[in-house]
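Annex B.
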Amino acid sequence: MAKRVAVVLAGCGVYDGSEIHEASAVLVHLSRGGATVQMFAPNIEQMHVVNHLKGEPAEEKRNVLVESARLARGNIQDLSKLSVKDHDAVIFPGGFGAAKNLCTWAVQGKDCSVNGEVKAALQAFHGEGKPIGLCCISPVLAAKVFPGCEVTVGIEKDERYAGWPKITTTVVSMGFEVKHELKRITNTKSSIGKY
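Zgc:162944: predicted structure tokens.
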């Protein structure tokens, strides 16, 4: 039987939603692995909208679910409908929407709050012992919801990638109570509890 995987999106666009390359990579790999995928997003207003051509805020309002539907080709459900009983795992692609729309880390750091539906989903999957995948900046969600969890996003320093944000280092240095396990980018994992 095919694994059933929920993918939670945070909008559409690296600076104010889900990072399109990461979301696409997750979906391609799940498809190649034979998984049945259902995408979800919260039906909320984005924190703000960024003009990706200019890299600056735009004076408009957008809805996270509506914007996420762009990536899902319309095949998406309101996050409130996500049931842990219907899925074997959940994955949160990165993009600043995870830090702006799924939680408030982008503006509040370690004192952030996590969207109630996102928090409930994380706790439900953890409670059932089901895998939780967190890409790029989205480990901040686990860092806030599960103090003391172990996150792995890559290596701490590599001159080949100068200027790239060191997300895990940032998560640890922002005062979250998490453990960081160093791994090369080809050998990563997130660990919550027994995972």
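The CA atoms of residues 12 and 71 lie 7 Å apart. Residues 20-32 form the longest helix (13 residues). Further annotation is deferred to the next reporting cycle.
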